[in-house]
Amino acid sequence: MAGLLDDRQAGHRRSVIAMTDTRPRASFWQRFNRMDEGRFGYLLIAPTALLMLVFLALPIGYSILMSLNRIELTISPDWKFIGLNNFGGLLSDNQVNAAIPRTLFFAALNVVFTTVLALVLSIVLNEPFKGRRWVRVFILLPWAVAPVVSGVMWRYMFHQSYGLINAVLRALGLIDKYVVWFDDPSVALSVAAIASAWKALPFASLILLAAMQGIPESLYRAAKMDGASILHRFWYVTFPHLRPTVIFVVVLQIIASLQAFDLIFTLTRGGPGQGTVVLNYLTFINAFERLSLGSASALALALAGLIMVLSGISLSLTVRRTPKGQA
Amino acid sequence: MRRMLSTWVRPALLYGLVAFFVIWTLAPVIWIATMSVQPEINYVSVPPHLSLNDFSLRWYTEMLSQADVAAALKNSVITSVATMACCLVFGSLAAYALARLKFPRRNLFLGASVISRMIPSMVLIIPMFLIMRWLNLRDTYAALIIVYSTFLLPYVIWMLKNFFDQIPVALESAARMDGCTRLGALFRVMIPAAAPGVVATAVFAFIGAWNEFLFGLILSTREVTPITVKLSGLVSSTFHSDTSLVAATGMLAILPVVALVIILNRYIVRGLVEGVKY
User: Which of B73, B123, B206 would you mutate first to test chain A, the one with the most A CBs within 10 A?
Assistant: First the structure.
C-alpha cells in the first residue's frame, strides 16, 4: 500500500515537473532506464520466451495434433482424425514390441556401466596421486565428443577387420580370428552401451566427485576413531551421502537410453537387421523412412511422457541436494 | 598385514585404476587418430603393422581440400558461434531478470524453462521440419541457429542464473548508486564479475551446438550441413573410399571441442557442476 502511495506521489511529482519543466522530453534511453522492475523483467525474458513459445510450445502442440491423426505420407497427404488410436496401437505394434526389450537391455547395461565406472572413477579422482591434475583434464574429453563421433570411434574400436579390440585380443592370444562383434544384436547393443557409458562417464563422475567432496571430513575422522576400515567407511559414510547423486546418475542414464539415437545411427545404423533399433531410433524410422507421422508422433510423445516423469524424479533429487536454491 | 596394504597394495590398486581410466578414455580417440595418419593397409592387415615411416597428414589435407567437408566445417563454425552469441545475449538478459528482478509470473517462466529441458528433440523434429519448411527457412543458418538456441537457452539461463546468484547484491547496488543503469550494471558489473561462469556457459553452448546431429540432419539438405551430419554420411558410404579419410574427418570434427576442453578445463568443470543445480 505504501508503495502504491509512493508511486502515486511520484507520478504526481512527475506530472508537475512535466507541466513546469521546459526541458525536452526524456529520451528513449532515459525512459527505458526508468522503467519499473516488473516491466523491465518481462522485457529481458521476452526474447527467450518468444523463442520458446514459437519453437518449443508450438511444435509440441503440433506434435500432439499429429498424434491424434492417421498420417501416412507414403499413401496420401491427408490427415484422418482417429483420436487416441495411435497411442493404443503402440502396444500392439510389432516394431514397438521388438524395440522395448532392446531398449531395456541397452538401458540396463548403460546404467550399470556408467554408475559403477563413475563411482570408482570419482573415488580414484578424490585420492591424491601423481599427475592427478592432468588425469582430470583428459578424463573430461569424452564429454565434449559428439555422440555421432563417439559412435564412429567405437565402431572402429570393434570393427571386424580393423578394430583395435580384435587386434589386442589376438595379440594376447585370446582369439585366433577377428570376431565380427556387430553380427550379434545383444553384443552390438552392449557395444552401444559401452560407447554411451564412455561419453557419460566424465559428467557422472564429476557430480559424484562434487558430492563426495561435500561430505564433512569430521565424519571420516570419527569413523576412523571408531576403527572402521576403508570399506566400512565407504559403505557407512560415503555411500549414504552419495545416494541421491547415484540415483540422479541412474535416472540420467535411463533418460539418455530412452533418447539414444545419434550414437546408434553411426555405430550400427540400427543393424544387424533391426537388432539395435531402440525406441527412439524407431521413432526416427517411423517418421522419416516410413513417413507415418501420426504414429511416430504418438511414440515420441509416449517416450517424452516417460522421460518427463523420470526427469521429475531427478529434479526432486537435485532440489533436495541443494536446499539453499531459492528456485 | 594392515601395513602391507597401506604401503603397496593401495598405491598399486590406485595407479592400476588410474591407468585403466586413462586408457579407457583415450583409447578410442588415439585409435581413430592413428587411423587418420596411416594408410588403410597398415591397420587392416592382421596383425596391424603401424609404422612411423608411413605417418602422413595427407588424409587431412585431402579432406580439407574437398569442398563439401571444408564447407561442413565452416557451417559448423558459423552455426556454433552464432548460437553461442545468441545464447549469451538472450540468456544473460533472462538470467539477470530471474536472478535479480521481481516480476509477476517469474516462477511460471522458471518452471517452463525447467520443463523445456526435459522435452526430447524427437518430439520436436517433425513439427520443426514442417515449420521451417513453411517459414522457408529450411537449409539456412537461421533455422539451425534458432533451433539450437531454443533448446540450449534453458540450460544456459540456469547456468548463468546460478552464477549471477553468487555475486553479492551490494556490488550491483554500488554500481547503481554511482549512476549505472540496470543494463549497465548487467554488462559492466554482473557479467565481468561472473566471467569464469560466463566462459563456462559459452563453451557449453558452443559444444552443444557443434555436437548437435538430429536437427542438422533433418533441417539441412546441402547448403548448411554441419560436420556431424557430413561425417555420418561418410561413415555409411565408406565401401569404396579410404577409411583413413573418414578417420581424419572424425578427428576434424572433434579437434575444436577437444582443444576447448583442454584449454578451458577448469571453467568447464565448474560450469558442469553448477549447471545441474536447481
Answer: B123
